[in-house]
Amino acid sequence: METLSALFTFWHEQAGKLGEQTLQHIGLTAASLLLAVLVGGPLGLFLSRRPRWAPAVLGLAGVLQTVPSIALLGFLIPLLGIGPKPAIFALFLYSLLPIIRNTLAGIQGVPPAMVEAARGLGLTDGQVLRQVELPLALPVLMAGIRTATVINVGVATLAAYVAAGGLGEFIFGGINLNNPVMILAGALPAAGLALAFDALLGGVQKLSARRLRQTGAALLLALPLLAGAYLLPRATGKLLAGFSPEFVGRADGLPGLTKAYGLTHLPSVVLAPALVYEAAHSANVDVIDGYSTDGRIRAYGLRVLRDDRRVFPPYYAVPVVRPALLREHPELRPVLAQLDGQISDSAMTELNYRADYLHQDPRAIAEAFLRRRGLWRDARPAVPGAPVVRLGSKIFAEQYILIEMYAALIRGQTDLAVEIKTGLGATSICFEALRTGAIDLYPEYTGTGLLVLLQPRPQVIDSLGGRPAAVLGYVRAEFRRRYGLEWLAPLGFNNTYALLMRGQQAQALGIASVSDLGGYLRK
Amino acid sequence: MTTIRATNLHKRYGAQPVVQDVSFELAAGETLVLLGPSGCGKTTLLKMLNRLIEPDAGTVEINGRDVHAQRPEVLRRGMGYVIQQVGLLPHYTVAENIAVVPKLLGHAPAAIAARTEALLTRLHLPPARYAGQLPHQLSGGQQQRVGLARALAADPPIILMDEPFGALDPITRASIRREFRELDELRSKTVVLVTHDVTEAFELADRILLLDAGRVQQMGTPRELLFRPANDFVRLFFAAERLALQLRVLTLGDVFGEENLTEANRTTTVHEALEQLTGAAADGSDTFTVAQLMAAFGEALQREEDAWKR
Fold first, then answer.
1. Beta strand segments in A306-400, E
2. DSSP string, B58-77
3. pLDDT reported for residue A231
4. Does the structure show a pLDDT above 80 at A498?
5. Which chain B residues have a beta carbon less than 8 Å from that of A127?
6. Is A183 on the interface with B (CB under 8 A)?
7. With an 8 Å Cβ cutoff, are A120 and B101 in contact?
């Protein structure tokens, strides 16, 4: 009941957006369907005349059908950019198979005697096609179009990942924010659309062959009009932003940013998180959200805009340890402290770049870094029966690199043995492992400790005001109090949300901070 | 006057010869029945006449003109075509089906409508009731009549029929055949009809072309095939139904002598006379009894066979 009322409230508040997305959704479906009918119909006809080609063509269309939609979109971005083009093309590819196959089946289903009788009466091949084969194949062809339509309404939700709009914007925003109301707000209209299209075409299919011909022609005319719904004017501005759904939805993301910096006149499209960097790199969009130490910042020549009003919460990386470890091996404390404040944002970005783009081994990256800083010592010979320090990490490159650094320091400067447990997955798994003593140390981020693990009341978060020292102080005190775990000193870099632009463009426009961006847009 | 002339037609599918060296001539207004067992090549032969199948060798001339001298569609529009499966277009009404060829030929809509109505009436399908119906609403016999009407619609001088009654039950089949025979429309047409039904062939044919394994076994009138078979195949082909065929071939004129009969009775077959004598319509006005007829029939048969032997 609560969800329902929340849903209606959401729709009410977002009525404009809902209408726009629904129209976009219809437009995407209709445009791709039109293309598929225009291409698939003749292709099916061709195959009915040259059945030898049928297995190859149908096989290819079938293979296309099995390509996961998000992967297909990924392939299309470098070719077609972002926006409606790759979305419509992907949907077009998905609807090809049912349309080709049903056209072929429809034509092949016409009794040969009927065709022969028509030819015997003196109809030309073209007349046989138009007056006999096509009208008789039409019900089967329509069934194919119907299948394709329902598939397309569903798959079109993914268009939200490539900035093509549609009801997927709500759905994927909701998934990323774990907001069921928002998911439903997009999913219910999408399901409704699928049902409505299915019922409509189902009704058309039941018409007599004669009426079907007229209705089919009318539908073919209607498709471009529906596709036109997509071309409704969209806001334009000096710069175009591409944001991940999560960023658009969460309070400390775009809404907070807009409020704090007055970021008006910044039209934005929604993109899959995995695609935003690519989109910025290929200049499909100008401003994106990302993480401040991502290796792609270096790889794509992007610039992090300084968050001079501290809207994004601080996510400083800090090793979290079980105090028992330091009590039993006090010699560890100075060894671990050697990294305190040693890794800047740009240094971490560089290290991530080596891992993600140069595909270097995290261990080698860690060694090279330590050698540059003069911290590298060759590992001491193993002492039999030495106590073991167990280090954990979440599954991404940044954590692997950090944990290799700590392992190298401990091996080189103490007699302790080291065991590395990578791949502990999500935050909660790492944290539980540490709390229960399965591991002794892992790197955590202050923002994550605050918002994900401690989850204090909003007033507490507000009182901290995003100040790095205050946040660290709060999580350190609370972890000690609640779990008896110890946050050591920050490593130096802040892996937080960030607004990014292409370096060249930012330089040309004189934009270094988010305030600069706001100023430029208002000019 | 020769309407259709086929000369040395050959056709093979792969290594399988289907039609081998078939030639025949057909005069205007004649009905030729292509008869033979399944797979003897009779349908292939028929389809060569309207170029649905092209021969490997040999020529077909229609009214003295090689069929290859014109486009196949144009050729076909000048020949009615009726097939066993009827082949009515299921999404067209009865009237529209009948109008297909006249429309292709560009006839005026009013003329087409009048022609359709006339044909339906003549074929016992009252237009008011049937013209607007779709084929699936009709019985098999009615569909076949529409198929016939469609072939006749543009009044072509030639009609080709491929087992036109093959899909019907025996009773419907006999009655449609009778209608067909009595149809004025068909009297003046040159008809080529394919069948494997011997009785049908004897009932409808002016001449029969009997085929086996793609070769002509004999071509002639039913009487010739029955009383003077060219070879054992021909003899054996008719053996099973010999008596029934003899009853259909011999007329009252043959058995009683022409001088003893009225004009109308001379061409009545013995078969028909027997039907009248034994049927419900018998009114006692006949000038002979069944016994007299059968005795005369026996004698006539003897005379025929003696005559052919000599």
1. 317-321, 388-392
2. EEEEETTEEGGGS-HHHHHH
3. 60
4. yes
5. 104
6. no
7. no
Q: In whole angstroms, what is the distance from residue A311 CA to residue A497 CA?
A: 9
Tokens of B91: 């999404």
Contacts of B16 (CB under 8 A, 6+ apart): none
Which residues is A388 bridged to in the sheet? A417
Q: For residue B34, give the H/E element and its range.
A: strand B31-35
* Residue B280: per-residue pLDDT: 59
Q: What is the mean pLDDT of chain A?
A: 86
pLDDT surpassing 90 at residue A363: yes
- pLDDT value at residue A264: 75
In chain B, residues with a C-beta closer than 8 Å to the C-beta of A135 are 91
Give exposure, A473-503, as e/b (b: 16+ Cβ within 10 Å): ebbbebbeeeeebbbbebbbbbbbbbbbbbe
Strand pairing class (B57-62; B65-66)? antiparallel
ipTM: 0.82
Q: Chain A within 8 Å of B240 (Cβ-Cβ)?
A: no
- d(Cα A120, Cα B69) in Å, to the nearest integer? 17
The mean pLDDT value for B162-179 works out to 80
Identity of the residue numbered A61? A
Helix, strand, coil percent content, chain B, rounded in steps of 5: 50, 20, 30
Residue A419: pLDDT band (50, 70, 90) is very high
Residue type, B236: L
Cβ atoms within 10 A of the Cβ of A203, count?
Answer: 10
CA distance linking residue B299 with residue B294, whole number of Å: 9
**pTM of the predicted structure, to 2 decimals:** 0.69
Q: Cα A314 vs. chain centroid, distance in angstroms? A: 23
Tell me how far apart the alpha carbons of residues A362 and A503 are, in angstroms, rounded to a whole number.
27
Confidence of residue A475 (pLDDT cuts 50, 70, 90): very high
pLDDT at residue B34 greater than cutoff 90: yes
Best CA proximity match to A473, nearest among A490, A457, A458: A490
Instruction: Please state the rounded mean pLDDT for residues A184-204.
Output: 90
Length of chain A: 523
- Mean pLDDT on B213-220: 90
| CA–CA distance, A386 with A435 (Å, rounded to integer) | 23
Interface residue of A121, A130, A142, A214 to substitute, partner B, most B CBs within 10 Å: A121
When CB atoms are compared, the residue of B50, B73, B90 closest to A123 is B73
Structure tokens at B101: 């060829």
Q: Which residue's structure tokens are 């021909």?
A: B234
The per-residue pLDDT for B14 is 85
Residue B41 pLDDT grade (very low, low, confident, very high; cuts 50, 70, 90): confident
A248–B contact, CB cutoff 8 A: no
pLDDT at position B179 is 79
Residues, chain B, total? 310
CA dihedral A403, A406, A408, A409 (to 10 degrees): 170
Is A121 close to B160, i.e. CB distance below 8 A?
no
DSSP B53: S
In contact, A430 and A393? CB cutoff 8 Å: yes
* Residue A168, pLDDT score: 87
